[in-house]
Each structure stands twice: as structure tokens, then as C-alpha cells.
Write a structure and sequence with these properties.
Strand order of the largest sheet of chain A: 2-1-6
Distance between the termini of chain B: 37 Å
Helix content of chain B: 25-40%
Shape of chain A: elongated
Radius of gyration of chain A: 17 Å
Oligomer: heterodimer
Chain lengths: 109, 284
């Protein structure tokens, strides 16, 4: 449900940057840990874009795989689950990728 | 210089992006005459190996010239407003806590007891977030504490701007505690910073002990976990040690306290934590 307000936010930000120009493509970066479901954003995008300079724009979403870094030994690895343990035994893992929620770029007609 | 294409015309600003202001009016008629005839006349007559790495990466970014890099955090606006709230709280030395949980975990009951038992020593204000009704605000009001109700309607979480308005209405006194009771939801409140010093997650024993594993975002975002309704433990299959282990696996720095808001068990630990943190807020 929160994807609707997130998507409305995305459309508002891009529309503000674009001014009166028509936007033909928007590219987002969504981390798999961001608690945002890309399919829901896609679903909401057409609805939110209607009647704005983003109407009919193509939505591209890059999904970012979660990466963790052990705070004890410094090892970096893919985070499969959020509950992980480093090979060194530490559970103090910092998430260094996967929380992204970003508008990367837009293309103007 | 344009960071997208590398050109350097200085025309009128038009498109402003988050922070970096990639902004100019270019008509991009790049006629880059890259006639790459690098005449590498290295007449090395050395008789030892030089590691010459001439990595001429003449990449002419094959991107469309109408592509504008934005690099904008989607939640930037909320985060900015949250920082304003945080500044307000710091200015008044207010400990602001964002209470998050599923519906029915006992957030309001926890607040009622906390106000009743701590209210005489520390001023407490409450911002109540619910989709509809002011039932919770009425319960808080009955304790004598200052309370403001927010109804989010269709919204499933509180955001920083509505909280800013609620703070104005609440007008908390210096050195007080403000509890922001978020909408009962373990998903999206994790995403939205309200300007609080800490998120306090509440999980009741009538929920599964695997809740931290099922909703890792929330338990990762929280600094404190209160396991509520421990008076019901004798009647439930809930394994509290397993629950704590799950929560710590998700977030090793989580401060876990087991309480019963109804019976008062374990509440003293919670009050001690509040008192310690009102003197030295959890984070800047």
C-alpha cells in the first residue's frame, strides 16, 4: 500500500525537474531490502503519471542485490537472508547495498 | 562542466537535481571529432620491461543527450522534514520515540502505564497515529497527558510533515518525552524517519517468535524491542528466548526488554532506559 505514496512522490519529483518538458523514460534504483515491491511501483506508476508530463513514460527499475560487510573482520558478501553470520562468527553485519530507493535518471522527449 | 556529457557550456540553469544541480540548457550538437590518431611514438629503447598501461578509455557515453541524471533519494523530502523535527526536539531537549508494532501489540496500554507511573517525574506528550478514530487519544487523555491524534485515513504510516504539524499542536515542554505511536503496521513505518531519537518496536507474546525474521526491516530499524504481554507466557507456546535470538540475529545492537504493560512486570527496566536516554539522547 505504501508503494502508492512512494510512486506519487517519484512522479512529483520527476515532474518538478522536467518542468514543461515531456518525460519519456524514468529509471529507478530499488534495493531488495528497501521494503518496496517493484511490481507495485510499476502498477501505481501509470495511475500516478496520468495527466502529468510523465504520462506514457517507460519505467525502468534496477533492482539492487543486498550486500553486507562484517563489522568485525571487514569481509564483504551477498546477503541472502537478513539474519546472517559472517564466517568469522560475528553477527554484526552492516548492510552496504540493498536499501536503495533512488531516481537515477530521466529522459526528456 | 556538465557531469553527464562532459561538455562545458554555461547556459541558463533549467533542470536542478538533488544537490548536484546538473543544470544547463544545452543544445548538444556534439561534433566530437575523435579522429583518434594517437601517435604513440614511444621509441623505447629500454632493455627492461616498463608496465605502460595506456588505457585510453575514450568513452563517448553512448547515452541519449536528453537523459538527465537525477540521483535523487525518493525519501529525501521526508528525511529533510524529519531532520527539522529532530532539530526541534534537540532544541527543547525532548526525547522523541517512534513506537512501531503490529496492531494489538499493546502500544497504547504500554503508554497508559508509563504515563501513570512516570508522569509525575517527567512530562510526557503523545502523538497518536491511527487510520481512523480518536479512541487511543481518548485513552491517553484520561491519563492526563497531552495528546494529539493524527488520522492517516488510507495512509498506512506516519510521515515527517504530519508529525511536524502534530508537534506544533502538542507544543512539548523542555526535558519531556514525546511518544509517537505509529500506525499499527510492521512494514512501511520502518521506511519513514519522523525525527525521533529511536524507534521502539513492540512485539507481543501472542504473535509468533519468528516475527523479527518475517519483518526484518522493522527490527533492523529499531533500537529498542519491548516484548509485551509476558504475563500470558504460561498459556502460550511462545518461546521468548528464541524470539530474542531471532531479533538479535537481525539486529545485534537491539536493546531487548520483556514487559507486561498490563501487570507492570519488567516496566522498571523500561523506565530506567527512558530516564537514561532523556539525559543522554540515544543518538544525535
Amino acid at each position: 500500500m505504501h508503494e502508492l505514496s512512494i510512486t506519487a512522490n517519484i512522479v512529483a519529483i520527476v515532474a518538478e525537474k522536467a518542468g514543461s518538458q515531456r518525460v519519456v523514460r524514468v529509471k529507478l534504483e530499488i534495493g531488495e531490502l528497501s521494503a518496496i515491491v517493484p511490481d507495485s511501483v510499476r502498477f501505481c506508476f501509470d495511475v500516478c503519471a496520468k495527466g502529468t508530463v510523465l504520462e506514457d513514460a517507460v519505467l525502468e527499475i534496477d533492482q539492487i542485490k543486498p550486500r553486507g560487510k562484517c563489522q568485525s573482520c571487514g569481509a564483504e558478501f551477498d546477503l541472502e537472508l537478513m539474519a546472517v553470520k559472517c564466517k568469522c562468527g560475528s553477527v554484526d553485519i552492516a548492510c552496504i547495498a540493498g536499501n536503495e530507493l533512488k531516481i537515477k535518471e530521466m529522459e526528456i522527449a | 562542466m556538465c557531469t553527464t556529457c562532459g561538455c562545458s557550456d554555461n547556459a541558463e540553469p533549467r533542470l536542478v537535481s538533488g544537490g548536484e544541480s546538473h543544470s544547463h540548457e544545452h543544445s548538444h550538437s556534439h561534433s566530437h571529432e575523435h579522429s583518434h590518431d594517437h601517435e604513440h611514438t614511444h621509441s623505447h629503447s629500454h632493455d627492461h620491461e616498463h608496465g605502460h598501461d595506456h588505457d585510453h578509455s575514450h568513452e563517448l557515453t553512448a547515452k541519449s543527450h536528453n537523459t538527465i541524471q537525477l540521483e535523487q533519494d525518493i525519501l529525501a523530502k521526508n528525511n529533510l522534514l524529519a531532520m527539522r523535527n529532530r532539530g526541534f526536539f534537540e532544541g527543547r531537549k525532548v526525547l522523541a520515540l517512534n513506537l512501531v508494532s503490529s496492531p494489538g501489540s499493546g502500544k497504547t496500554a504500554l503508554l497508559e502505564r508509563t504515563i501513570n507511573e512516570l508522569g509525575a517525574q517527567i512530562a510526557i506528550g503523545v502523538i497518536e497515529g491511527d487510520q481512523e478514530t480518536d479512541n487511543d487519544a481518548q485513552r491517553i487523555k484520561a491519563t492526563g497527558a497531552k495528546v494529539v491524534q493524527i488520522n492517516t485515513g488510507a495512509g498506512c504510516h506516519l510521515e515527517a510533515d504530519i508529525v511536524a504539524r502534530a508537534i506544533n499542536a502538542l507544543d512539548p515542554t523542555n526535558n519531556s518525552i514525546v511518544f509517537i505511536e505509529n500506525v499499527g503496521n510492521l512494514v512501511c513505518p520502518a521506511l519513514f524517519d519522523l525525527g525521533e531519537q529511536a524507534k521502539v518496536a513492540i512485539l507481543s507474546t501472542t504473535e509468533g517468535e519468528d516475527k523479527p525474521l518475517k519483518y526484518p526491516h522493522m527490527f533492523r530499524a529499531a533500537q529498542v524491542l519491548l516484548i509485551n504481554k509476558i504475563d500470558l507466557l504460561p498459556y502460550l507456546k511462545f518461546d521468548i528466548n528464541k524470539c530474542i535470538a531471532n531479533a538479535l540475529a537481525i539486529n545485534p545492537s537491539l536493546k531487548v526488554m520483556a514487559v507486561s504493560a498490563q501487570e507492570g512486570t519488567g516496566m522498571q527496566l523500561w523506565y530506567d532506559w527512558l530516564k537514561a536516554n532523556i539525559l543522554a539522547p540515544a543518538r544525535g
